[in-house]
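Recap slide: Putative AlkP superfamily phosphohydrolase/phosphomutase, sequence and predicted structure.
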Amino acid sequence: MPQRVALIGLDCGTPQLAFDRFAADMPTLTRLRQDAAWGPMRSVVPPITVPAWACMMSGRTPGELGVYGFRDRRDHSYGSLAFASSDKFTLPRLWDALSAERRRSVVIGMPGTYPPAPIHGEMVSCFMAPSTDADFTFPRELRNEVQRITGGYHLDVNDFRSPDLERVSQQIFDMSEQRFALAGHMARTREWDFFAFVDMGPDRLHHGFWRYCDPEHPRYEPGNRWEHVFRDYYRALDRHLAAFLESLPDGTAVLVVSDHGGQPMVGGFCVNEWLRRQGLLVLTEEPSGPTRMADAKVDWSRTTAWAEGGYYGRIFLNVAGREPQGTVPARELDATLDQIAAAIEAIPGPDGLPMGNRAMRPADVYPEVNAIPPDLIVYFGDLRWRALATLGLGRGLYSPDNDTGPDHANHAEQGIFVLSGTGRTPGRREGLSLYDVAPTLQDLLGLPRRAGQRGAVVE
């Protein structure tokens, strides 16, 4: 018999923190696990917010969705990156399947939902909305209730990569409290079959404060002002979770889940500077200071490859007949990619030891590749190093800092999965995948498995 299902999304929820280090500080989640199928859950490639949540809700890979990050190439021109708005996700997500059966969903803060599309139910879209002046809800008039209930809705933490840690920490705590309060209000006052909300608080906390809380971080200082902010936040998060669970109807299945985990960021690797030193990226003019790739003076007629940075690196080849001034003959594309991938994987760290890099072709990772993917997906140091695309940093290839503001964490491949209230045998599960979420929720909701979906039902 179909169940109601409530999904509580904790962006960057990390098993080493939620299940281990702060288990005693999170009694609600720990009790929930006693009646749950739970365990660490492998994310997608790449393990980042967009497209991971959309993959979770559709059961499809980034390649099938044709979305590989927050920004993807619109075309094969240079500098054509565009944000992944909701209209880029053309394959149905869980609420779409429910809407087709006239069953109601309430969706709050789910990444990849701006601008909000009509559903049978209600939607408060995500942090990708430019502001609350935009149409960030469906239906449109819902925004008035959201603003009234919250006293001014926080889509996200403003400039979370900031040295103003007092402000950032306060906004993180406030945003999570507000998100859970709004979710509780809507869970109590609506009829629904599926309820889902995502709190970005853990992600923003990890990026802003990891170095202050983790003795394993290379820049940790014992006794610092922020040493216990992780603990304090996870305690608050658990209180919010307890209050939200009280708002749910009896018999609701509950899934607490994250899209990826977190880990210390050792530093940043200057990937475009490395391409320059390999003779693969050629400039007509030396940068006078830190310069974004989009603003660099590139001699495309002599350039083989360039990169975009972020939590992971993306390498693009300058292919003849594909890019406007392509230099790599199509017949040499495979060999060129093999050479670049091998060179990347051989890069040593600043200590001379192997970094442990991985360079992957999308066609080797995904069963189907749509839209315009990167030619190589690169994890530097198994994601312990951020990919820095900025040129002219003047620090060699290795930087202790991020190039877009203070950041002390990077993403990790293991997130969290806690499924309670289903009657399934409780206990830790091994080998869980983010792709298991959609078929599992469909099974609980009495929806058929859709053709082409990945993953398996968690029993």
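The longest strand covers residues 36-42.
The chain has 13 helices and 21 strands.
(End of recap.)
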